[in-house]
Amino acid sequence: MLHIKFPVISRTRALENKIDCFHDKMIEAAAVFHRSIKTFLNENSRDEYKSINKQIKTIEHEADKLRRDIENDLYSQNLLPNLQADILQLIEGLDKINNQFDDVIYKFYIEQPQIPAPFHRKLIELCYQVADCAENMAIASRAFFKDLSTVRDYSHKVYIMEQESDSTYNDLKKAIFASDMELANKLQLDLLITEVADIADIAEDCADELLIFTLKRDI
């Protein structure tokens, strides 16, 4: 049997394709999360929300497989040795965002919190903001491999969206505890919106790391 040894450049391109697919999965997860909250708040869309829960789990599992493949390729084939540690740290950080999308959607599905109508607008706004924050983080990360000159611009968008989501989260939290809901319901909803807001916080941490990695490449 003939064994063909591919050159390093071919293996590197295969790795870059996997990294590209990983970013696609993250953007896909953000899009699913973006529409999840309106679906949840619509009492006539419970079956659709169940489908969304399954969809986000599929995306998360596929992203996990890509992450493991990327890590294995970097180590076993010693690809991109100068960037190896940075890439691993970056991919692991991004994977935490995917995991958080999955966790939040699942908790809404399992806990079925009662969310009064006055909170719907702010909750939808918060979910949209953190999804946009995560999407911009994925784009910034992709730029690290394709166009370093745009990393800072997209990272800046991550910071802006994190600040906006933080403001929305605080307003929503104040409104929840100022309401006449039962204390147990207030605490449940507070924990859920905190987990939503955490998505943007994780993305912000990733942006911090990404900018450091970018500066190192510029040196």
Q: How are the elements arranged and paired?
A:
Layout lengths: L7 H34 L4 H31 L7 H28 L8 H27 L4 H28 L4 H36 L1
Helix pairs in contact: 1-2, 1-3, 1-4, 2-3, 3-6, 4-5, 4-6, 5-6
Helical content, roughly? over 70%
User: What sequence of helices (H) and strands (E) makes up the elements?
Assistant: HHHHHH
Radius of gyration: 19 Å
Morphology: elongated
**How many individual helices?**
6
Keywords:
219 residues, mainly alpha, disordered N terminus
Description:
With 219 residues, the chain is mainly α. The chain contains 6 helices and no strands. The termini are far apart. Mean pLDDT is 91; it is low at 1-9.
Structure summary:
It is built from six helices and no strands. The chain has 219 residues and is mainly α.
